[in-house]
Amino acid sequence: MILWYDYYMRGQSDNLLKSKVLGLRRSGKTYSEIKKSIGKNIPKSTLSTWCSQVVLNRKQKKRIADSVKMNILNGQKKALVVIRKKRESHLAEIDGKIKNLKNVFLDKSVAKIALAMLYLGEGAKSRKGSLMLGNSNPDLINLFVHLLRKCYLIDEGKFRCTVQCRADQNIPELEDFWSRLTKISLNQFYKARIDPRTIGKKSLKTDYKGVCRIDYFSADIYIELKKIGELLSKQV
After folding, report:
1. pLDDT, the chain, mean
2. CA dihedral defined by 56, 57, 63, 66, rounded to 10 degrees?
3. Closest Cα to residue 118, out of 103, 102, 105?
4. Burial label, 224 (beta-carbon count in 10 A; 0-12, 13-18, 19+)
5. CA–CA separation, 147 vs 214, rounded Å?
């Protein structure tokens, strides 16, 4: 008798809950709003089954659709925040692992090896009497000229620069940027080269500074860097 009564009361409770759900749905509430209102985490599939016969008007359907879209956007924003925090934490961990390398270039031999590897990876190898390296990355160009000056007694007059850019870019501004970065006088800049493929096309990257090509006329430095690379490769 007690078991039957418990079963009966449970059924009554379920019917009351279902009735509340249907009432909320008829008023145009989303499933998320319904669960929050009744304070129970009912599966969405169950709510969908219960409310399958509920007819909503156009205004209610639009409100629900807009609410679902907003919930999706909010969920995506929260996910991006979590991803960004994880990435920041990961990058901070990597910074901690390599911070002891920040003074590595104080050793001139290490700096020269770094310069050789940089040049053999990015520089021109067909010009026997000089070095030539071009890149659009200001950090890489800055590193190249910094290492050259650190490792060798440089004749500043032997530097030459050439800016290679898009047709709609401001050449004087680009040359001024690269001159200040490399500390090479504007008087030592060759005439800028415009990529003919970009004529009539708008540049999309506003921070793009073109390509800076550095020439330094020294056959001895070129040969030495090349031999350093050969020496290291033989050790491997």
Report:
1. 87
2. 80
3. 105
4. middle
5. 13
Half-sphere exposure of residue 4: CA atoms within 13 angstroms, side-chain side: 1
Give pLDDT, residue 48: 84
Radius of gyration of the chain (CA): 34
Distance CA 194, CA 201 (A): 12
Task: Calculate mean pLDDT across residues 49-66.
Answer: 84
Q: What is the reported pLDDT for 215?
A: 96
The answer to whether 114 touches 144, Cβ cutoff 8 Å, is no
Among candidate residues 149, 142, 179, the one with its CA nearest the CA of residue 163: 179
What confidence category does residue 4 fall into, taking pLDDT thresholds of 50, 70 and 90? very low
What type of residue sits at position 190? Answer: Y
Question: pLDDT for 198-212, tens place per residue?
Answer: 999 998 888 999 999
Contact, 161 vs 134, CB < 8 A?
Answer: no
